[in-house]
């Protein structure tokens, strides 16, 4: 099946290049992807050149698990190479998150006429179209379909089809890193988005909890992480309600200004 890429022209280009790099990198334990770009998590300062190369090839890359005490130095070194920096707080959840998610799912009742989809190669194209529309409206970038469908990486992505045929909400998680890496059993978690007209029904909480539980049941995941901006109070609230909290780490984006200018590759 031909892969599908999402987002703006430059975001699709980033995903397309990442897809083309996959045969070279997907079996290398140093590299990881959530389906947007290839990246190196918790790099050493000696790996700045490798990170810069990934940014220049794809237009952007990222570092998760960067100690906040070190992020300023990393940002300075990337800036010296002519790259633009962006950042998020890294929120994390563990066994307590799974307990909270299980309790939440046991007590949640999905509103009538909403249809749950776990995204797969059988997902209809009109659902993917609606998913992209909802995600884009919330500043969220879906990953390329080989990751969205759990083919390139172990993953679980969900969306809710609303009564009008659109996608009301989405969320998901994936094992970004190679199983033999030091983060091989930790799952990226997020893509939380809800349409304006469907808000107030805790749909993101439901899908986020479902994604976490599925990753635990299918792949044994007990550690989850995501990037949240310091001023994104809604996302911070959703994360905290599910037991995913701010940590000592930051997530850094490293951008080629020729591709992304002064903006980030995603919200």
TrEMBL record:
Cross-referenced SUPFAM superfamilies: Acyl-CoA N-acyltransferases (Nat)
InterPro entries in UniProt: Acyl_CoA_acyltransferase
Gene3D superfamilies: 3.40.630.30
Protein name: N-acetyltransferase domain-containing protein
Organism encoding this protein: Roseovarius litorisediminis
């Amino acid at each position: 099946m031909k892969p599908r890429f999402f987002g703006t022209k430059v975001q699709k280009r980033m995903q397309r290049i990442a897809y083309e790099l996959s045969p070279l990198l997907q079996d290398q334990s140093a590299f990881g992807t959530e389906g947007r770009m290839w990246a190196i998590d918790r790099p050493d300062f000696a790996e700045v050149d490798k990170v810069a190369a990934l940014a220049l090839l794809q237009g952007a890359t990222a570092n998760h698990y960067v100690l906040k005490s070190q992020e300023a130095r990393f940002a300075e070194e990337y800036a010296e190479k002519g790259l633009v920096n962006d950042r998020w707080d890294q929120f994390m959840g563990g066994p307590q998150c799974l307990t909270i998610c299980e309790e939440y799912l046991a007590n949640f009742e999905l509103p009538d006429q909403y249809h749950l989809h776990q995204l797969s190669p059988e997902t209809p194209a009109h659902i993917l179209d609606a998913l992209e529309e909802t995600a884009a409206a919330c500043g969220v970038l879906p990953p390329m379909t080989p990751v969205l469908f759990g083919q390139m990486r172990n993953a679980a992505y969900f969306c809710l089809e609303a009564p009008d045929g659109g996608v009301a909400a989405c969320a998901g998680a994936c094992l970004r890193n190679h199983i033999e890496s030091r983060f091989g059993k930790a799952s990226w978690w997020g893509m939380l988005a809800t349409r304006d007209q469907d808000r107030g029904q805790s749909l993101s909480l439901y899908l986020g909890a479902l994604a976490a539980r599925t990753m635990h049941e299918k792949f044994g995941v007990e550690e989850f992480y995501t990037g949240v901006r310091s001023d994104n109070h809604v996302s911070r609230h959703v994360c905290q309600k599910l037991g995913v909290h701010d940590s000592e780490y930051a997530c850094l984006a490293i951008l080629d200004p020729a591709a992304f200018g002064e903006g980030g590759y995603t919200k």
